[in-house]
Amino acid sequence: MKFLKFAVTTIALAFLLTTGIGDKASAQDKWPTKPINIVVSFKAGGNADIVARMNADALSKQLGVPVNVLNKPGGAHIPATMFVLKAPADGYTLFNWSPPSFMVVPLTRKVPYKPLRDFIPLFAGISASNALYVRADSPYKTFEEFIKGAKAKKLTIGVNNLGAPPNLSAVQMAKEFGLEFKTLALKTVPATMTGLLGGQVDVAVGQVASIHKYGDKVRPLVILDNNRKAFYAKDLPGVRTVGEVFPGKNAGTWVHGGLAVKAGTPQHIVDRLLEASKVMGKPAFIARVPKSVSYDWVHGTEATRKKIQDGIDLYSPLLASLGLLVKN
Q1: Closest to 220 in 3D by CA, of 156, 163, 127, 146
Q2: What whole-number distance in Å separates Cα of residue 241 and Cα of residue 247?
Q3: C-alpha to C-alpha distance for 95 and 124, rounded to whole angstroms
Q4: For residues 133 and 207, is the Cβ–Cβ distance under 8 A?
Q5: How confident is the model over 62-98, as pLDDT tens digits?
Q6: What does the DSSP assignment read for 241-261?
Q7: Which strand ranges, in their side-by-side order, compose the sheet holding 203-207?
Q8: Which of 41, 87, 124, 184 could cross-link to 298 by cystine, CB 3.0-4.6 Å?
Q9: Residue 110 CB: number of other CB atoms within 10 A?
């Protein structure tokens, strides 16, 4: 009788265990079962928003559920970031991370988060390296002439915001070549280029992919990034990088952006998102990216973490030289 009781108990326990395991496996197989949101810390209509909506559409097709974009601009990207961190770690709220939210803001402000601790990055895609521009009638025809002129006379350089990537490109260039500029911050990259055309500044730093907007009104002197990519040939044919003009020299900040999920998200969900997001690195997807956006695909948690850390390591000393670096 005791043996019979023991056998029945053992069978019942085995049934419960196998049923639990089966239910768990079934739940993993079913994810996702409801719409997913991508939180964007920029306003609608900009490059980050456009690519985020492309990502949403691609993920929706891969995962079989609606993927929506939630725009939460303002507040130095902090409200959008915290919105994601306050949501459950269940993969249904993704963050469209960017250099401001993951690098500049955490390095220059006291914020209640650490990007590489509190997020799991999935990939990096959108990229926007900078270039140095002068007006078409500028006496500086080459980067070499510009360096010589900038050493002889203190020039005014236009950037969008102090601490933003174009400003950091200018700071890095100044340090590399022993230059001193008068810096004029003009709030946005288009405003910076307008300031250049209007004569407010002698030279300006703007995004490589934005050159097509200004035609022959401006002259790109050099690409402020030694990591030459195919899109340079499309946007700035024949324009060299700093290292190509002056071997051994480097000037130009790294700029990237992609998707991340909250740390603590179950690994099977992270794996599902990683698998689904592979489509964003396919030629068919990249071919649809607007001309105003450069694209540099990096996929996988560790590879993307390294990219983000590279950006933090690059930005930190530059922000420190501006007196903007804050320890969190």
Answers
A1: 146
A2: 10
A3: 12
A4: no
A5: 999 999 999 999 999 999 999 999 999 999 999 999 9
A6: BHHHHSTT-------EEEEEE
A7: 182-185, 156-159, 203-207, 130-135, 218-223
A8: 124
A9: 8
